[in-house]
Design brief:
It is a single chain. The protein is built from 22 helices and twelve strands. By secondary structure, it is an alpha/beta fold. Among the domains are: 2-311, ABC transporter transmembrane region fold, CATH 1.20.1560; 415-488, Rossmann fold (3-Layer(aba) Sandwich), CATH 3.40.50. The radius of gyration is 35 Å and the shape is elongated.
């Protein structure tokens, strides 16, 4: 945790200097107050000198006000540092995650990444905002009070040090015991977040299958496990604060008893004993602050380790030190003996894939579910890295290109239509920020989306909900297609994004795209033969192997897998021709 704090807090040196100055001033004021009180008792109360009481009392009031001002100022600067520190951690976690490959992302999971950037960051914030002042105030006030107490009474100070030693041992044992418990608690929180996200996303399916009771029981089980882990972790530190209070009370009783004996034997004055007790209370107060910090520290230590694991995670896909440039991109794409398999998997997803998608041509990829079609698209986008072989764009290995530059030349309509909450026009500009309204309307028209966008009150400036939940599946797909078309990239990928369209709309969209993108490279992944039959080349995959490539007519005669797909879809030429 210390390393992570130092990494961020070093940028707030000036504010931390202010915190140090104000904390030091506050401590000095607090350490001076008992001396002034002793003077009032000895020279004012004992001798009946009202003038000394009034003047010293006014002086104490001024010092108290100065201490309060310093406390407020140090709190302000420490709050600023802590809020900025937490904000930067969240921003850096997000910045790191957005550069993750799909494999990197899968190694953590969405639920735990969300927890680490919110709950874990907040746990660290609690410790930092309390510790920033306390870690300065406790040593200064505590050590200062101990020194002043030692000057007042050596014997009673040794009693105080004995209590401090016992308390320190208790603190160390409690911290060591509670750390694993808080680690387990955070894992349970990750599990709860995962289930919550899953249930909220699939709430319609849960209702449709009448699975409410089952899913409720499943969530309640995880929730109960999370509660049990939290209770167990809390129990580990629950006795700590009462024990601290008990130790302090016992110490005070012993000091009062021995102090009263010394007063009776005239070893010390009553005023000196009162001053000593004030310093003891100040020291005990410092220990109480330590107890508060240490009760929160195990949680923060676990949270810091989890956040640091994300920030320091190595990226599986990185840019080359000396990247090549593509120049005027023609759009030729070549897969050369490409293999791919997930880490730890026994079987490869793709094996020995070789084909060329010619520049300015349409290449289609078909195959059964799980044959590796979408994986090919993800490899071209470098969301995954090939295990063996090469992928080339205009005869340049994509590993030699910056990821940003590669993707600048690719338009992409994903299998799952991902739309963002906000205006339709803002969604259309995701791939091309400078796109004009005319370009957006043109793309929407090509994707047959203007028929439901135009009737809206604000047209392309209409607001849609997050994920486009207020749209049908087909409408979301058409907006996703339009977003890819707005970019007008040299290479455009359509990953099974026509599946929710009816045959007529599918045919119209493809016709519009073929006319407008005649000189650009298009790669289409589809299930329907009707969607790909007019492609210049069709790639047929089966269980990760390339089993055929060519035009529709050729594959219909020579490729057994393609023939099976044709037969299973009950392909009807006459129906297609009527569209």
């Amino acid at each position: 945790m210390i390393n992570l704090l130092m990494r961020y807090l070093k940028d707030y040196r000036r504010q931390m200097i202010f915190v140090f100055v104000f904390v030091l001033s506050q401590a000095a004021c607090q350490l001076y107050l008992p001396v002034m009180m002793g003077n009032i008792v000895q020279n004012g109360v004992a001798e009946g000198n009202t003038q000394v009481i009034l003047s010293s009392g006014m002086h104490m009031l001024m010092v108290s006000v100065a201490a309060a001002v310093c406390m407020v100022a140090s709190s302000y600067f420490s709050a600023y540092v802590t809020a900025s520190f937490t904000s930067r951690i969240r921003a850096d976690v997000f910045d790191k995650v957005k550069d993750f490959s799909q494999s990197d992302f899968n190694s953590f999971g969405a639920a735990t990444l969300l927890t680490r950037s919110t709950t874990d960051a907040t746990q660290m914030q609690i410790v930092v905002i309390n510790g920033l002042r306390s870690l300065l105030l406790i040593p200064i006030t505590g050590v200062g009070a101990l020194i002043m107490a030692f000057r007042q009474n050596v014997l009673l100070t040794f009693i105080l040090l004995t209590a401090f030693l016992v308390t320190s041992i208790v603190i160390a044992m409690t911290t060591r015991r509670s750390m694993p418990l808080f680690q387990e608690m955070q894992k349970k929180v990750d599990r709860i977040n995962l289930l919550m996200k899953e249930k909220l996303t699939g709430v319609r399916a849960i209702r449709a299958f009448n699975r409410q009771a089952y899913e409720t029981d499943k969530f309640e089980t995880a929730n109960q496990e999370g509660m049990d882990a939290a209770v167990k972790a809390s129990y580990a530190v629950a006795f700590f604060s009462p024990l601290m209070q008990l130790m302090m009370n016992i110490t005070m009783v012993v000091i009062y008893w021995l102090g009263s004996v010394e007063v009776q034997q005239k070893i010390v004055d009553i005023s000196d004993l009162m001053v000593f007790i004030q310093y003891v209370l100040m020291f005990m107060s410092s220990l109480s602050l330590v107890s508060v910090l240490l009760m929160a520290y195990p949680k923060a230590e676990v949270s810091a380790a989890r956040v640091k694991a994300v920030l320091d995670a190595p990226l599986s896909i990185t840019d080359p030190q000396n990247p090549r440039t593509l120049g005027d991109v023609k759009g030729k794409v070549e897969f050369r003996n490409v293999d791919f398999g997930y880490a730890g998997a026994e079987k490869k997803v793709l094996s020995g894939i070789s084909f060329v998608a010619e520049a300015g041509r349409t290449t289609a990829i078909v195959g059964a579910t799980g044959s590796g079609k979408t994986t090919l698209i993800n490899l071209l986008l470098r969301l995954y890295e090939v295990t063996n072989g090469q992928i080339l764009v205009d005869d340049v290995n994509i590993k030699e290109l910056e990821q940003k530059r590669l993707r600048e030349n690719i338009g992409y309509a994903p299998q799952e239509s991902v739309l963002f909450g906000g205006k339709i026009s803002d969604n259309m500009r995701v791939g091309k920020k400078e796109a004009t309204d005319a370009e957006i309307e043109e793309a929407l028209s090509m994707a047959q989306a203007m028929e439901f966008v135009a009737p809206r009150q604000d047209g392309v400036e209409s607001v849609i909900t997050q994920g486009g939940k207020d749209l049908s599946g087909g409408q979301r797909q058409r907006l996703s297609i339009a977003r890819a078309l707005v970019k007008k990239a040299p290479i455009t990928l359509f990953d099974d994004c026509f599946s929710a369209l009816d045959f007529k709309t599918d045919a119209m969209v493809r016709k519009n795209i073929n006319q407008a993108f005649a000189n650009k490279t298009m790669i289409i992944v589809a299930q329907r033969i009707s969607t790909v039959k007019d492609a210049d080349k069709i790639i047929v995959l089966d269980n990760g192997l390339l089993v055929g490539q060519g035009r529709h007519e050729e594959l219909a005669e020579t490729c057994a897998v393609y023939q099976e797909i044709l037969k299973s879809q009950a392909y009807a030429d006459s129906k297609e021709e009527s569209l």
